[in-house]
């Protein structure tokens, strides 16, 4: 007798919905993508109604950077059947947060069907708020590629370190194989200076052109800035404080993102 459960497992999930926004991702952990995502969300709140989605499902930290103490999180949505609208936490900066959970192993290994249901919930949220800013975990996991495919612009954060460049290239390669031609833009973070950032981007652009036959765009260079780590320790976003070199760079990136539109 056929195994009905096995048949269901083999059934491909429907296509993911397109979401009105962009994702902030990176091939390697520790490149500062969550800090970038949080501060861009705050800067975009000056002219829109952004909603930050923490997709680092098993290791949440966007709430810490944003300085929010959420009462509920995505574990209750994905594992408990709660409506996603009920877990949105509002911040003092005009940014809403859909928080992930920390230390929940089941969230770190979602299947295609579970991811599809989650993204349908995000699509509902996107009907009343935009942009949705998807803060992904590092790497090339299923949820990372799903987030990249669902949005208009993919912002890949890297640092000038060789390992960060290699992992960022691996991410772009996997995405290009899954869905060729996505709008990929690079943010070089923690650069020693402008030339250091330009050099890192040039290396990334060259390897993508050589091996993938595609071009990528530089979205911005964020200099290494002690104010960033101080802000994280204080649970106060950089964008909520005084002007610093990193904040100036983030403002330039936010201005470029305003001009691209949110629809995928």
Numbering strands along the chain, what is their spatial order in the largest sheet? 3-4-2-5-1-6-7-8
Helix fraction by DSSP (H/I, runs of at least 4): 40-55%
* β-sheet strand percentage: 15-25%
* Domain unit count: 1
| CATH fold node name | Rossmann fold
Oligomer: single chain
Q: Helix count?
A: 10
Helix-and-strand structural type: alpha/beta
CATH architecture: 3-Layer(aba) Sandwich
CATH superfamily: P-loop containing nucleotide triphosphate hydrolases
Q: Roughly how many Å is the radius of gyration?
A: 18 Å
CATH uppermost class = Alpha Beta
Give the overall average pLDDT. Answer: 90
- The rough form would be described as globular
Low-confidence blocks of residues: 1-11
Number of strands: 8
Order of helices and strands: HEHEHHEEHEHEHEHEHH
């Amino acid at each position: 007798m056929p195994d009905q459960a096995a048949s269901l497992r083999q059934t491909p999930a429907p296509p993911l919905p397109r979401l009105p926004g962009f994702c902030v991702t990176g091939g390697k952990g520790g490149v500062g993508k969550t800090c970038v995502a949080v501060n861009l969300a705050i800067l975009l709140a000056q002219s829109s109604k952004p909603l930050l989605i923490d997709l680092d499902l098993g290791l949440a930290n966007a709430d810490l950077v944003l300085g929010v103490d959420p009462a509920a999180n995505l574990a209750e949505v994905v594992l408990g059947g709660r409506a996603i609208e009920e877990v949105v936490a509002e911040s003092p900066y005009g940014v809403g947060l859909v928080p992930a959970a920390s230390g929940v192993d089941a969230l770190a290994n979602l299947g295609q069907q579970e991811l599809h249901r989650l993204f349908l919930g995000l699509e509902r949220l996107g009907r009343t708020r935009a942009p949705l800013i998807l803060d992904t975990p590092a790497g090339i996991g299923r949820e990372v590629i799903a987030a990249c495919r669902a949005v208009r612009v993919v912002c890949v954060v890297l640092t000038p370190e060789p390992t960060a460049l290699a992992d960022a290239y691996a991410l772009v390669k996997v995405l290009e194989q899954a869905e060729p031609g996505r709008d990929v833009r690079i943010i070089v973070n923690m650069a020693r200076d402008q030339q250091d950032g330009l050099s890192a981007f040039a290396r990334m652009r060259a390897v993508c052109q050589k091996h993938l036959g595609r071009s990528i765009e530089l979205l911005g260079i964020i200099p290494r800035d002690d104010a960033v780590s101080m802000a994280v320790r204080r649970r106060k976003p950089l964008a909520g404080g005084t002007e610093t070199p990193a904040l100036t760079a983030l403002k330039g990136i936010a201005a470029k993102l305003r001009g691209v539109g949110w629809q995928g």
